[in-house]
Design a protein that fits this description.
- The complex is a heterodimer of chains A (290) and B (332).
- Chain A has 290 residues and is mainly alpha-helical.
- Chain A has a single domain (54-288), classed as Orthogonal Bundle (MetI-like fold).
- Chain A is 73% helix and 1% strand.
- Chain A has 13 helices and two strands.
- Chain A has helices spanning 4-36, 54-61, 63-94, 101-109, 116-127, 134-141, 149-152, 154-179, 183-191, 196-223, 228-232, 245-255, 259-284; strands at 38-39, 49-50.
- Chain B has helices at residues 42-50, 92-102, 107-120, 136-148, 166-183, 194-200, 218-223, 228-233, 245-249, and strands at residues 4-13, 16-26, 31-35, 57-62, 65-66, 77-80, 154-158, 186-191, 203-208, 211-216, 240-243, 254-257, 262-265, 270-279, 283-290, 295-301, 311-316, 322-324.
- The longest helix of chain B has 18 residues, at 166-183.
- Chain B has nine helices and 18 strands.
- Classes of the chains: A mainly alpha (290), B alpha+beta (332).
- At the A-B interface, helix 9 and helix 10 of A face strand 6 and helix 2 of B.
- The structure holds adenosine-5'-triphosphate (ATP) and magnesium ion (MG).
- Residues 42-43, 158-159 of chain B line the site of magnesium ion.
């Protein structure tokens, strides 16, 4: 692919897919942008017209919006911290040579295959339920009052559920990275007098930075849009305590049937995602280069 | 100080006894080379000494103290790995300083020792590079640098030159020998290359299938191999081993004559036809098919005018004939 003609041919060949992808991406974005400046409520479909930034202002003036923004970032940040830290620990554990290693690894990965609403239902009804849940039973076993997870700690509960779902992904990526670390490097460090903790800090973690970066970037993309778990468990409540930006958009679109506002919320979410992406790439993106 | 004693050391991986029973003393300041064919347990033995593997039975003493169950870091030994095992995300400076940092030395002391090591190893201009930006020989030197800053009781090298090209191997060989002369620290060096062993060692330990075949100085092994294995392993090209009537005439099961101890004469005791000839310039190695059917190698002068198919007559130098019994051991 170096001569003039072959480069031209290459461009011509990829052009259709580039154009298609561009339309694929640009059309929905343009439509969202269009609706975000329109009055368009499904309950009164004949009352339409341009409204300028009214839809956006509604968000910025709503106290729920700032809470939702904070909740979104807290959810993303909380899940990232939990999955990366625990993921590293689990990867270190299942990298040890033990009997039934293959089986163990499958078990660790299993939660990833459970669909979000199913996972959320399982947690809500089998673990966190104040009467039937396992945690309630344990609490009663110690003579304590069962904790009302979804009522008292709604956002933390959602973070817990989502972390459980994403932990296998993190652990798996980090495990493959761990396995690519040459054992001679660890032995050299051992001979150099590095304790287990020093080896983790100076050899293993630096080796895993790229994998950790990949985990953070990929998870952030998916976590910004978390919806199913909230819908299944807290419905954004109590009040708006566990409402995130996507859930707020959903409420405007489906509950309030206000397409204009929902579209404005969508655009705000896109901008938020880009801000997050910008800081992520500035902060850790350099680890992706070899 | 670096005297290492192995007493009845035994190592098994599961059912397989890789090292059945080894007794060996390595004196302080000695350059000892473990040599043997691939898979004979050289690396395993070195790793046992380093503490990277646990012995199955037996005892390892370092400077008179039982070190059998000491962790690697406490043994005061430094190891240079075949793959160098440098830390890729650290600069050369940090790589070399790593053992010092782990030992809790101050920044200034670390820097002083790193500079000193870099000077000895000609690495001063590369201290801020990463291992990935160095050539093979430079990486090797960084690995050695990381070993020498610790001022260990002994250095352990596991085939440190096998990833280098031939020319670099020769020069690194000399550098390591010079380093040994400067530091006068015990060095244990593993290789499967008998030329490296012959040129570098004070003492060679020939291993075969986990057993010590012979221990001795390079020339001792060359002049007085204790058995057929050592006879065939030490020396290049290999010693010619001949069985049958010729050997029986000498009262041995097998006799061995090195290619350099065979003279081409008018009428000698062995006759044959020249096969392959290898001209090295200084020498010519002739493969000769004897009338008895044995193929032997003869070292002749570089200018020798013999070619394929010529009939020649050979005379082994009588005082250079090695005689071996049926059990493979050398006869007195
Ligand atoms: N961890 C292990 N588990 C089982 N067997 C092993 C292990 N390490 C080494 N061995 C076996 O022990 C024997 C000696 O291995 P070792 O690595 O010491 O050989 P070596 O002499 O260093 O060979 P080379 O010159 O190829 O490096 C080999 O047969 C090898 O298969
Ligand atoms: Mg080896």
């Amino acid at each position: 692919m170096s001569t003039q003609s072959s480069r031209l041919a290459a461009r011509v060949m990829v052009a259709p897919s580039v154009v298609l992808l561009f339309i694929w991406m640009a059309v929905p974005l343009a439509m969202t942008l269009y609706y975000s400046f329109r009055l368009y409520r499904l309950l009164s479909p004949d009352r339409t017209g341009w409204v300028g930034f009214t839809n956006y202002l509604w968000f910025f003036n709503s106290p729920d919006f700032w809470l939702a923004l904070w909740n979104t970032l807290a959810l993303v940040g909380g899940v990232l911290v939990i999955t990366v830290v625990l993921g590293i620990l689990i990867a270190l554990l299942i990298d040890q040579p033990v009997k039934g290693q293959g089986m163990l690894r499958i078990l660790v990965i299993a939660p990833f295959f459970v669909m979000p609403p199913v996972a959320a239902s399982i947690w809500e009804n089998l673990f966190m339920h104040p009467q039937n849940g396992l945690f309630a039973a344990i609490a009663r076993g110690f003579g304590a009052q069962p904790i009302l997870f979804l009522e008292e700690y709604p956002l933390l509960s959602v973070i817990g559920i989502v972390s459980w779902e994403w932990l296998p992904f993190a652990a798996l990526i980090l495990l493959t990275s761990l396995q690519s670390l040459s054992s001679e490097q660890l032995e050299a460090a051992e001979m150099d007098g590095a304790s287990a903790l020093s080896r983790l800090r100076y050899i293993i973690l630096p080796h895993m930075t790229r994998a950790i970066t990949v985990v953070i970037l990929i998870q952030t993309i998916f976590l910004l849009g978390i919806f199913g778990e909230i819908f299944t468990t807290t419905q954004g409540g109590p009040g708006s305590a566990s409402t995130t930006l996507p859930y707020m958009i959903f409420k405007q679109a489906i509950a309030a049937k206000d397409i204009g506002r929902a579209a404005a919320g969508g655009i705000i979410a896109v901008i938020l995602a880009n801000i997050v992406a910008y800081f992520l790439m500035r902060g850790i993106g350099r680890h992706l280069d070899a | 100080m670096g005297k290492i004693t192995l007493k009845h050391v035994n190592k098994s991986f599961g059912e397989v006894a890789v090292i059945p029973d080894i007794n060996l003393t390595i004196e302080d300041g000695e350059f000892v080379v473990f040599v043997g064919p691939s898979g004979c347990g050289k690396s395993t033995l070195l790793r046992l000494i380093a503490g990277l593997e646990d012995v199955t039975a037996g005892q390892i003493d370092i400077d008179g103290l039982d070190a059998t169950y000491l962790p690697p870091a406490k043994r005061g030994l430094a190891m240079v790995f075949q793959s160098y095992a440098l830390y890729p995300h650290m600069t050369v400076r940090k790589n070399i300083a790593f053992p010092l940092k782990m030992a809790g030395l101050s920044e200034e002391e670390q820097e002083k020792k790193v500079q000193n090591a870099a000077r000895i190893l000609n690495l001063t201009n590369y201290l801020d590079r990463r291992p990935g930006q160095l050539s093979g020989g430079q990486r090797q030197r960084v690995a050695i640098g990381r070993a020498i800053v610790r001022e260990p009781a002994a250095f352990l090298f596991d085939e440190p030159l096998s990833n280098l090209d031939a020319a670099l191997r020769v020069s690194m060989r000399q550098e390591i020998t010079e380093l040994h002369q400067t530091l006068k620290t015990t060095m244990i060096y593993v290789t499967h290359d008998q030329v490296e062993a012959m040129t570098m060692a004070d003492k060679i330990v020939v291993l075969n299938a986990g057993n010590i075949e012979q221990v001795g100085s390079p020339l001792e092994l060359y002049h007085r191999p204790a058995n057929l294995f050592v006879a065939g392993f030490i020396g290049s090209p290999k010693m010619n081993l001949v069985q049958g009537a010729v050997a029986a005439a000498q009262g041995a099961d097998t006799i061995g004559v090195r290619p350099e101890h065979l003279d081409i004469v008018e009428s000698g005791s062995w006759h044959g036809v020249v096969g392959l000839t290898e001209h090295l310039g200084s020498d010519t190695f002739l493969k000769v098919v004897l009338d008895t059917g044995d193929t032997i190698t003869v070292r002749a002068d570089g200018e020798v005018g013999l070619r394929h198919g010529d009939r020649i007559s050979l005379a082994p130098r009588p005082d250079r004939i090695h005689r071996f019994g049926a059990d493979g051991k050398a006869l007195a």
